Amino acid sequence: MTQNINLLDKLGIQPISAFNSKLIGQISIGWILLLILIYVSASITHSSKQKTLLTLETTQKNLLANITANQEIILPKENTATADPKALPQSSINLLGFYRYLDDLARFTPNGIWLNNIIFSDAGESITIEGSSIAPSGISIFLNSLHNSTSLYNKKFGAMQLKKSAISSNIDFTLSTVVINPKEPDKK
Fold first, then answer.
1. pLDDT, greater one: 158 or 86
2. How many domains in the chain?
3. Which pLDDT band, with edges at 50, 70 and 90, does 95 fall under?
4. pLDDT value at position 121?
5. Looking at the predicted structure, is the pLDDT value of residue 178 above 90?
6. Whole-angstrom distance between the N-terminal and C-terminal Cα of the chain?
7. Rounded to whole angstroms, how far apart are CA atoms 39 and 33?
8. 133 with 110: CB under 8 angstroms?
9. Which CATH number fits the domain that encloses residue 154?
10. Where is pLDDT greater, at 124 or 116?
11. Residues 157, 142: contact at Cβ < 8 Å?
């Protein structure tokens, strides 16, 4: 005997369209929440970078203002500078220092001579130069070259002390436009 079974009534199959619409809705809401999360995190990162950028721009403006202010202090105004330093009055030579002498010493010091100490006093009237030379002849070459300088040509070095260095084989010297009293050994 054959039985007829109605499979549609017994299995209770639900329509497919209701299942798909619920799943598609859940996926769509998930994507929307993910995009909102990405947008919020990007906005927070962008705002912190904007704050850092504004801080850096403010710091840059402050540094540029400080540099400009310091340059105005260091550099003389163009209308007050004079081209010839020898035309300056004697009272203002201390504002410029003894740069002419230092420039000439740098240009006219021959090889083999090292300057260790330079003393200027009385607005350049008294000059004492201490240094070392490889050979004694280097000191005479140095003195002759100073006569070629523009600021030291008229200076008469009236005192000279020579001493062989205890550390090396160099000759230590002292040249002065004033007479230097040699140090007397202590008497006991």
1. 158
2. 2
3. very low
4. 75
5. no
6. 150
7. 10
8. no
9. 3.30.1360
10. 116
11. no
Q: Are residues 68 and 126 in the same domain?
A: no
Q: Does some domain include residue 104?
A: yes
Indicate if 152 and 118 belong to the same structural domain. Answer: yes
Here the tokens at position 155 are 């200076």
In a domain, 187, yes or no: no
Q: Are residues 97 and 140 in the same domain?
A: yes
pTM reported for the whole predicted model: 0.44
CA nearest neighbour of 177 among 135, 133, 123: 123
CA 112 vs CA 37, 73, 76: distances in Å: 76, 39, 37
Q: Are residues 108 and 172 located together in one domain of the fold?
A: yes
Amino acid identity of 94?
N
DSSP E strands in the chain: the ranges are: 113-121, 126-133, 159-164, 171-176
pLDDT bracket for residue 30 (50, 70, 90): very high
At 45, which amino acid appears?
T
Q: Is the same domain home to 30 and 68?
A: yes
Identify whether 39 is part of a domain.
yes
Cα–Cα distances in Å, from 142 out to 41, 89, 101, 171? 74, 30, 14, 13
Around Cβ 78, how many Cβ atoms within 10 Å? 6
Residue 24 has pLDDT above 90, yes or no: no
The verdict on 25 and 55 lying in the same domain is yes
Residue 51: per-residue pLDDT: 92
List Cβ neighbours of 102 (8 Å cut-off, separation of 6 or more): 118
- Residues 135/114, Cβ–Cβ less than 8 Å: no
